[in-house]
Amino acid sequence: MNQTTAVGRDSLREAIIKNMITVALCFSIVYVNGTLVHIFNRHQIFNTNPRYILYVHLVINDIIMVIMFILLQVLSYIMFTINVSLCIVLLMTAVLASQNNPLTVVLMSVECYVAVCFPLHHSRVCTVRRTYVVIALTWLVNSLSILPDLFLTLGTENPDFFHSRRFCLRANVFRGNLEYKRRLSNILFFVILWLILFYTYFNIWFAAQTASANAKKARNTVLLHGFQLLLGMLNFLFNVVIEAFAVIFPRNVPYIRFVVSILIQLVPRIVNPIIYAIRDKALKKYLKKYLLIAANDADVHPIKTQKRDNFATGVIKNVILAALCISINYINCTLLHTFRKHQV
To answer: What is the distance between the alpha carbons of residues 133 and 126, in angstroms, rounded to a whole number?
Structure first.
C-alpha cells in the first residue's frame, strides 16, 4: 500500500477537501464491511461455512487496508512526518493486508472448484478448521514479502534512524536496494495466482457442460474472482501508474497521486462487498435487514425504544461529523505548527 499524498504540501483548502472526500469514502466502506463482519459473527449459517469464512477474511483485509489508508493520509497532512518505527508498523500492516486479498480470492476459487468437481469430498476437504489453518498460512506466506525489508533495515540502519521522523513512504523507510526483488516477487506471485485461477475456471467450465446449475453459477463466480484479482493487481502497479502520469502532467503530481490512490486503493474496497453481497441471496437478505431496517424489530430489547438511522442517514451523519473533526484538528494543528515555527 502506498501513501496518497505527494511529498509537497497542499494548501489548507485542498487538504480539507481531499480529506473530506477520503473520509467519506472510508467511512462508507468500513460501515458496510463492518456490517458484513457483524452478520458473519451473528449467524451460524455463515460462520460454519468455509466459503463465507474466506469471504469475511477478504472483507476484514479490506477494512484493515482502508484504516491504514486513512491513517497514513491524515497523519501526513497533520504532522507531515511521523516516527519511523510507527511508520514501519503501519506500512507492514498495509502491505500484508494488500497481499492477503489476491491470495484469498484465489483460495475462494479453489473452494468453488472442489465443491463443483469433487462434491462428495467437499465436506471432508473444506472444513472450518482447515479453512482457518489456510488463512493463518496466508498471513505467514505473505509476511515473507515484507520481512526481508524489515531485517535489512534493522541490520543496516543506525538506531537513531528508528527514532527519527520521515514522510511515511515505503521507499523512505525501507531504503535497501530491494526494488528489483519486490517487482520480481510480485510478478511471480501473480503469475502463480493466475495459473491457479485459470486451472479452476476451466475445470469448472468443463463441469458446467453437463448443464449443472451449480456448476454454471460457480463458473460465473470464478469469473468474478478473476475480476477481483485484476483489481488487486492494480495496487501493485501504483508507483508505475504515478510515474507514467507524472511524465505527462509534471505539475499536477499531488492531484495525480490523490486521484490514482482513490481509484486503485479505495474503489476495489467498494467493489468487493458488492460483488458477493448482491449475488449471494442469503447474504443479501441479512445485509438489507441490517442496513435498511430500523431497530424496532421483534428481537430488539424492550427498553431500547429509540429507532436506528437507516444506512444513508447514518453514513451522512458520520461523514459530516468526521469531516468537521478533521477540519478542526487540521486548523488547530496548523496554528500550533505556526506558533512553534515563528518566534514572533
So the answer is: 11
Report how far residue 219's alpha carbon sits from residue 72's, in angstroms, rounded to the nearest whole number: 38
Measure CA 148 to chain center. 23
Beta-bridge partners for 165: 83
pTM for this model (two decimals):
0.76
CA distance 17 to 213: 48
Pull the grid cell for residue 290.
441490517
For the chain, the residue count is: 344
Domain made up of 12-341: CATH architecture: Up-down Bundle (1.20)
DSSP string, 257-272: HHHHHIIIIIHHHHHH
Instruction: Output the CA–CA distances (angstroms, integers) from residue 310 to 47, 291, 316, in the order listed.
Output: 26, 6, 10
Tell me the pLDDT tens digit for each residue of 249-305.
877 777 888 888 888 878 888 777 777 777 777 787 887 777 765 333 434 444 343
Q: How far is it, in rounded angstroms, from Cα 190 to Cα 196?
A: 10
Nearest CA among 1, 292, 330 for reference residue 170: 1
Report the distance separating Cα 58 and Cα 40, nearest Å: 12
